[in-house]
# Entry
Amino acid sequence: MSLSPRVIALLGFGEAGSAIARGLCAEGGWRGPSRPGDNAPRRVIAIDTALDRDARGTALGKEARRLDIAIEGSYTEALREADLVICAVQGEHALEAAEAAAPLLKKGAHYLDLCTVTGRMSDEDRAPIEAAGGRYVDIAVMGGFFRHGIKAPMLVAGTDVEATVAWMNASGFDAKVLGPKPGSASSVKMIRSVLIKGVEALGVEAYVTAERQGILEEVMGCMGDVDKVGFGKFVGTLVQTHVVHAHRRWEEMGLVGQTLRETGVDPLMTKVIERSLRRSVDAGIAPSDGTVPSFDEALKILSEKVIRGR
# Structure
């Protein structure tokens, strides 16, 4: 089935919602009068409960009016007109938004959930939408709106996902099909954040230390091995060889911590890494012959003997 909404409702008009609105107006032609031959004007409406409550709320109201977008500070009957709803509130308010919107949804309306939530939270958001006859679509935003605007890369999962992605890309988004299972896109983002936010924290610790030692440029320039294979494959190789080399790496991190302390940097992340490596050492997973297992076998060993809690 194809998707051709006439009215789009944005729930949340902060950085994400306003960026999407600007993109739709600029690239999708949603601003101003209808296109020639249109039977009815295409419109974007917005709802943000912070409207006019403070300086930020006043600013987002001004931005909406600049874009000719009608904005409300509460969930009103106007939402019933929307064929497609894009929820871009903060993750902790995602369920609240879904529950408030559900009674007002037009039956069959697509509900695109862009909130940063876990897979389980996505299931909770989906329940009131589907109970009201809406079509829930799980979307993980994989880049920042501040930098990319509506072109922030997105992964899309759920029913009618192909039609949703086709409409999104035709309207200025940068979306890719992940699969039919709602919640999977949110889970991908959460797990990706383990790596990306972890690297961010490590970068703070490492680059401050390097800058204090006057070798920042040299440290930043010695990442060629990562560049050659790509970040994902590089991390995979580290996981694979971890089974064999955890002990050596654990000993090295002790010296790394000492290096940071000598520079006046609290080795917060380094100490956690040292503990993580020691966990593998204590599990006794290193093969006696020193052979590096396959990637799949390494994951199995780590899951069964090191990472507990299943």
User: Anything to note?
Assistant: The chain is about 50% helix and 15% strand. The longest strand covers residues 135-141. The first helix runs from residue 15 to 27. Residues 7-188 form a domain with the Rossmann fold fold (CATH 3.40.50.720).
